[in-house]
From TrEMBL:
Family classification: Belongs to the aspartate/ornithine carbamoyltransferase superfamily. SOTCase family.
Function: Catalyzes the transfer of the carbamoyl group from carbamoyl phosphate to the delta-amino group of N(2)-succinyl-L-ornithine to produce N(2)-succinyl-L-citrulline. Is essential for arginine biosynthesis.
Domain Aspartate/ornithine carbamoyltransferase carbamoyl-P binding as annotated: residue spans: 4-160
Boundaries of every Aspartate/ornithine carbamoyltransferase Asp/Orn-binding domain copy: 184-309
InterPro entries attached to this UniProt entry: ArgF'-like, Asp/Orn_carbamoyltranf_P-bd, Asp/Orn_carbamoylTrfase, Asp/Orn_carbamoylTrfase_sf, Asp_carbamoyltransf_Asp/Orn-bd
Catalytic activity, reaction form: N(2)-succinyl-L-ornithine + carbamoyl phosphate = N(2)-succinyl-L-citrulline + phosphate + H(+)
Domain of life: Bacteria
Protein name listed in UniProt: N-succinylornithine carbamoyltransferase
Keyword Zinc-finger found: no
Signal peptide residues on this chain, from the entry's feature table: none
């Protein structure tokens, strides 16, 4: 594996899930692989889980870790080539990526979309430029359109908790007061649709995800119908792809409640976190036995560890 930014970077997702599962049993068995290797983690946006679980994954492999909050502690980046940099940007991404990667064997980068210019966000310009100018493998810590480490952890969580060979997995849009990226939802679909599950996505009219992600996927605009007999309910808000970055107000009734969970086949509840309690989903659901939110967060460590191990050259 040369980089980890999307499903297509991985040759066998099942193998990666199996490796993560094995690492969860024996986290320290590959310490020699990471010895004297350095992981750099670059954040342009906030993070709790990705920041800590990826560091923990690296420590489990015997790696050293350096973290840079580029948005707060470093220079503001210029992305365009040939610009006369006499305005606000202070360092070109070309120089920043080249220099950071000199200090590291693997670099992880988190970069959210600005949710204003759809083409710019969907071309992943910052991530792609970083890859272009860095000389080492790059791991996405959530980019403008995808969150592959989250999706890999989610696959592992579903694998561990499924009670039948082909469970019904429902990804449901849920309300939120702020415009959020489509990345977690896009990525979840991209990974799970290749697994042996019955996938249903549900969202209000006008909130369909990008055609490239929902191609050949069942999309319903009726949440109650979608939830029937679900084995897993994954809730997530996203802002509009169609009216790019717009919030959909007036759909508070899409919140996941205990009553809605009654429609399901005693489904497990999933969310990537952070979650706005009692907006996206009620406390009653989040704090119930059905909730897998902390198991998902725990699995982030082993998903990241599997990815780092592959990038370090483990067969
Ligand atoms: N990394 C996991 C999700 C990150 C981001 N959520 C957020 O920004 C939530 C912020 C808030 O609740 O205001 C998202 O949806 O893609
Ligand atoms: N789920 C997730 O990626 O969380 P953070 O944004 O806190 O890293």
């Amino acid at each position: 594996m040369k980089k980890f930014t999307a499903y297509k970077d991985v040759s066998q997702a099942e193998d990666l899930v199996a490796l993560a599962k094995e690492l969860k049993q024996h986290p320290f068995q590959h310490q020699e692989f990471g010895k004297n290797k350095t992981l750099g983690l670059v954040f342009l946006n906030p993070s709790l889980r990705t920041r800590l679980s990826t560091q923990k994954a690296a420590f489990n492999l015997g790696m050293n870790v350096m973290v840079l909050n580029l948005d707060k502690d470093s220079w503001s980046l210029e992305l365009e080539d040939g610009t006369v940099m006499n305005q606000n940007s202070q360092e070109h991404i070309k120089d920043a990526a080249a220099v950071i990667s000199q200090y590291c064997d693997i670099v992880g980068i988190r970069t959210f979309p600005d949710l204003k210019d759809r083409e710019a966000d969907y071309s992943e310009q910052l991530l792609q430029k970083f890859i272009k100018y860095a000389q080492v493998p790059i791991v996405s810590l959530e980019s403008a359109t995808r969150h592959p480490l989250q999706s890999l952890a989610d696959l592992l969580t579903i694998e561990e908790h499924k009670a039948k060979a082909k469970p019904k997995v429902v990804l449901s849009w849920a309300p939120h007061p702020k415009a959020l990226p489509q990345a977690v939802a896009n990525s979840f679909i991209e990974w799970i649709k290749e697994s042996d599950v019955e996938l249903v996505v549900c969202n209000p009219e006008g909130m369909d995800l990008a055609p490239e992600f929902i191609k050949d996927v069942t999309v319903l605009h009726n949440q109650e119908e979608a939830l029937k007999e679900a084995d897993f309910v994954y809730a997530k808000n996203w802002s509009s792809y169609e009216n790019y970055g717009e919030i959909l107000a007036g759909h508070e009734n899409w919140r996941i409640t205990a009553d809605k969970m009654q429609l399901t086949n005693k489904a497990k509840f999933m969310h990537c976190l952070p979650v706005r309690r009692n907006v996206v989903v009620t406390d009653e659901v989040l704090d119930s036995e059905q909730s897998l939110i902390y198991q998902q967060a725990e699995n982030r460590t082993y998903a990241a560890q599997a990815v780092l191990l592959k990038l370090l050259g483990h067969e």
